[in-house]
Amino acid sequence: MKIYxxxxxxxxxxxxxxxxxxxxxxxxxxxxxxxxxxLLVFAPxxxxxxxxxxxxxxxxxxxxxxxxxxxxxxxxxxHDLFELRKSSKSDGRSNGHSHCKSFLLxxxxxxxxxxGKLMIGSKQSIFALEFDGSRKxxxxxxxxxx
Length: 146
Prior knowledge:
Blueprint: E1 2-11, E2 17-20, H1 22-32, E3 37-42, E4 48-53, H2 57-70, H3 96-105, E5 108-114, E6 117-118, E7 125-130, E8 136-145
Antiparallel strand pairs: 1-8, 2-7, 3-5, 3-8, 4-7, 5-6
């Protein structure tokens, strides 16, 4: 079995941003020369998410609306009460909502590989979701197989 790993970089311009990284992930798979196995897409950040869904503009608006409704930015998050923290250092961002969104969606997806292709449906795309922009982020893609 072979293991190949590469990073994809994204840079957000807004607080919450969806990045379709399907093409970049397939490029990593192609570079790996692995034909059969599985591929992991992993965001090593606590305020990001990795999801698979349909890349359709109106649906992106729906996703955004649902995220704002489930985890509103203007709610009270204990994480944001910097003066009460004793055990951890703050980066100064009021981003409790970003951590909660990431917690709900998850930070990774595993995708089967067959004949050198991602086994996602024709309407599916792989998304990296930034919840605490604007900033640069690395996403790890690890391919395992033969």
